[in-house]
Amino acid sequence: MTEIDTSVPHSARIWNYWLGGKDNYPVDEAAGDAYTAVFPGIVTIARGSRAFLGRSIRYLVAEAGVRQFLDVGTGLPTVDNTHEVAQRIAPESRIVYVDNDPLVLAHARALLTSTSEGATAYEDLSLYEPEKILEAATRTLDLSRPTALILSGILGHVADHDQARDIVRRLLAGLPSGSYLSLNEGSRGTDPAYEQAQDAYNETGAVPYFLRPVDQIAAYFEGLDLVEPGLVSVPLWHPEPGDDDPLPIGQHGALGRKP
């Protein structure tokens, strides 16, 4: 297994730190604190993205009747992982997680708990190998049945937008009619302070994450039928009843159904 380097900051561990997780090191806390000193709203972005993921999964299970999930670019386990949210409502749900980060692999056992009625699996594969991902998923999922593809904050790591779109197209091509795409990504056009902080971070030599204009995020949903309210800043997508007057942030998401 690839050695885990704890001497340099790691984006998955920094994200974990912002989410309140424990799977991070002092170097990640220092990098996370340096980022929040410039842009304190990053914690709101991270938690807003995570909350959107939870709400979209609950919609998929309770409203759309989906029981299969393919979560690509999983990241480190925190609270309310995809299988926990889905199986809480429908214990028979089946989930495949995909990531190729040695750190995520080391913690994958936390993703592999499951109800006895359902199943979870972890596949150590790259986002850039859509066909291998689909082939591996068939060990756990029946891809002749509707499946929800989850891409949460991962495509910003793909520098070329056309390549990112191609990855989404190829993954969706392997899923049947009635499947869904749940996607949320960092966006431009809402929060200039976030854009400035992220652009500066990208220049530090860390693994970059590219914020994209909303129309480029919308392009990932080409050919899909968007669930209302469409592509919006994540706090505005199906807010919980207690969420009074949710405010837009620089993170956009949507849920789309494959016709």
TrEMBL record:
Chain intervals for the UniProt region annotation (Disordered): 237-259
Where are its TM segments located?
none
| Annotated Pfam families | Methyltransf_19
Q: Which UniProt keywords apply?
A: Methyltransferase, Transferase
**Any GO BP:** methylation
Top-level taxonomic group: Bacteria
* A GO MF label: methyltransferase activity
Record has Methyltransferase as a keyword: yes
Protein name per Swiss-Prot or TrEMBL: SAM-dependent methyltransferase
- Species: Streptomyces shaanxiensis
